[in-house]
Design brief:
Distance between the termini: 10 Å
Low-confidence stretches: none
CATH topology: Rossmann fold
CATH architecture: 3-Layer(aba) Sandwich
Strand order of the largest sheet: 2-3-1-4-5
Shape: globular
Structural class: alpha/beta
Order of helices and strands: EHEHHEHHEHHHEH
CATH class: Alpha Beta
Mean pLDDT: 93
Number of helices: 9
Helix content: 55-70%
Number of strands: 5
Largest sheet: 5 strands, parallel
Bound molecules: adenosine-5'-diphosphate, magnesium ion
């Protein structure tokens, strides 16, 4: 067992990952624990440069979907070796708001790349830095989007092709996450994130009791 613990938050948009990651950090800090919050892509100078490429179309050409997969993986590889693994070796609790499973869910299940290939790319990028626990904050696509936009009806009830496709994409992502949770039941904890923030926070704290040193 490593000295620290590696906790990742995953799930569809609007599940409350960022909200709950912050609440968890506050609780861990209150206990006087050494904690680290990381963001992807980014978190290292190289990762921030990659983030810039991913966000700003620097080269003046649209990024190919394949290129995007490798850029995420490259940022992750750097973050793992420069930040996450050293922190875990020092005994730090590392909390990551999205990690490798996001690539499998979004680019694999969502975008339609081979899930096996996404898993292989992730495995190469992260090496031994497999999370100790992955909290899957699961919500329906409707509820997640309602939280984010408050405009669920306009988004999804129009019989517009692009919006129907967007919805189908996010449904595939959600179902992909549920499949991953079945594939690795010892690592994944599915959390019903449709409840209040306080209820979700308490459930997460209960789940982590068995995981924290
Ligand atoms: N359990 C919850 N119930 C209602 N609203 C929530 C809940 N958790 C988060 N929110 C709100 O929903 C929005 C999206 O939450 P966020 O934490 O950013 O989700 P994510 O990071 O998973 O996309 C925010 O406005 C947040 O305040
Ligand atoms: Mg978020």
């Amino acid at each position: 067992m490593r000295a620290g613990r590696f906790i990742t938050f995953e799930g569809p948009e609007g599940g409350g990952k960022t909200t709950q990651a912050k609440r968890l950090l506050a609780r861990l800090r209150d206990q006087g624990r050494d904690v680290l919050y990381t963001r992807e892509p980014g978190g290292t100078p190289t990762g921030e440069a990659i983030r810039d490429i991913l966000q700003h179309d620097k080269a003046g050409e649209p990024l190919c979907d394949e290129t995007e997969v490798f850029l995420f993986a490259a940022s992750r590889a750097q973050l793992v070796r420069k930040v996450i693994v050293p922190a875990l070796e020092r005994g730090t609790i590392v909390v990551c708001d999205r990690f490798a499973d996001s690539t499998t869910a979004y680019q694999g299940y969502g975008r339609g790349f081979s899930v096996e290939q996404m898993l292989a790319i992730n495995a190469f990028a992260i090496g031994d830095a497999v999370p100790d626990v992955t909290l899957l904050l699961d919500v329906t696509i409707d509820l997640g989007f309602e939280r984010i936009t408050g405009r669920q009806k306009e988004l999804f009830e129009q019989a517009d092709r692009i919006e129907r496709e967007a919805r189908a994409f996010h449904e595939r992502v959600r179902n992909g996450y549920l499949e991953l949770a079945q594939k690795w039941p010892e690592r994944f904890r599915r959390i019903d994130a449709a409840r209040t923030p306080d209820e979700v926070e308490v459930t997460i704290w209960e789940v982590l009791k068995d995981v924290l040193p």
